[in-house]
Please model this.
Amino acid sequence: MRWTRGQTLGHGSSATVSLATASPLSGATVFAVKSAELSKSEFLQREQKIISSLSSPHVVGYKGCDITMENNMTMYNLFMEYVSGGTLADATSGCGGRLDESLIGYYAQHIVQGLDYLHSQGLVHCDIKGRNILISEDDGAKIADFGCAKWVERRVEEDKVVAIGGTPMYMAPEVARGEEQGFPCDIWAIGCTIIEMATGGAPWPKVADPVTVLYQIAYSDELPEFPSFLSEQAKDFLDKCLRRCPKERWTASQLLKHPFLEGSNSGVKSIPDSASNFSPTSILDQGFWNSLEESESLSSPVDTQRKNPAADRIRRLSSLSEVPSWTWDENWITIRENNSEDNNVIMNAVEFEAYMICGSATVSISNGAEELESTFGTEELLNFSDSNVNSRSGNSIGFFNGRKRCVALSNLNFVRDKEKSFLPSISSF
Ligand SMILES: Nc1ncnc2c1ncn2[C@@H]1O[C@H](COP(=O)(O)OP(=O)(O)OP(=O)(O)O)[C@@H](O)[C@H]1O
Model:
């Protein structure tokens, strides 16, 4: 099929989504194309395998895939139906940050229908949130972004590379503890998304930093606060989603029979004007991290430490005094670059320690001539020290875990001229 790339619709951590048109010969149609460089498209190809097997009015539709050469780069492209109404997060902010309860019920019904379908296929979405729900004039809400999704039963080869993932604010307790990520985690995330639709904010608004949020979700007895202005029916629905014990959460098919959804068949179809994106994105979102601050909101850090020394470790590693300036491309975060001979920063050695909350990461350090790589996994502490990184130019350090999710990395030290200078680290991607 011949097609032309149009305007950019959105950027994610792993790919860029653009509008596209097929040439009249191929049947003039408009669709969306999600693209990544072929060499970095492992997760996009995985997403293609998943969405090509799905068909539901409440799941974004698959239209094909191809490989193209653009600006000397080989691109992998995944074609999807174009959903014109923006994301649910845009819709919420376009309505002043709070959707009407009938509209919340209307969209919630579609999300639950979409999830009921996915779960019946044995698929867990793992990243339900306002930014991953698209709004269509005809079908209402559609679930998108299957980059974190996983088959529950099937042990397919590629699933080995998909670690526990998602967005911390929306993570269920068992996921935050790194125990399991099954169907009930999507149900918890529906509860969080309803709070997002009702308040325009995150389910844990008092805690800004993702590491503290993960603690709170994982080890406290707390639940996100239910918006007081919601009806008793809506609160009861939230109660069925937001149970800390996954076994106590209702299933998607049970939720479809809940009066809150049964009463929302009124056919609300007005799509509010979209405004700016504000919904917390994956752990990569710069704004999310810019608000990092050491929070004292953990009810009992001592208890947590006793139960879990790893938790203490994360807590200690997460204390930052200032936010580093970094840039990233599709799959890399470059922490510090030294590309110019004139640059004052001369790295004579590099040392850091990094701690993974979930998943795994490859750390690569380049001195311009060679790359040194090291991979580490969930709850592993990586100590890296190399005195051979001494080039005056081309030094960079990158952290890569394919989709850059749920990683805490800390205490990054560059040693300049034998004097240690503390670069306060990363806690993310
Ligand atoms: N089919 C579509 N139609 C219209 N817009 C879309 C479509 N798919 C994605 N978008 C837009 O592109 C953005 C990024 O898409 P998507 O979430 O799939 O990318 P991602 O790289 O997986 O992002 P993330 O980092 O959140 O995982 C969406 O938030 C949305 O604004």
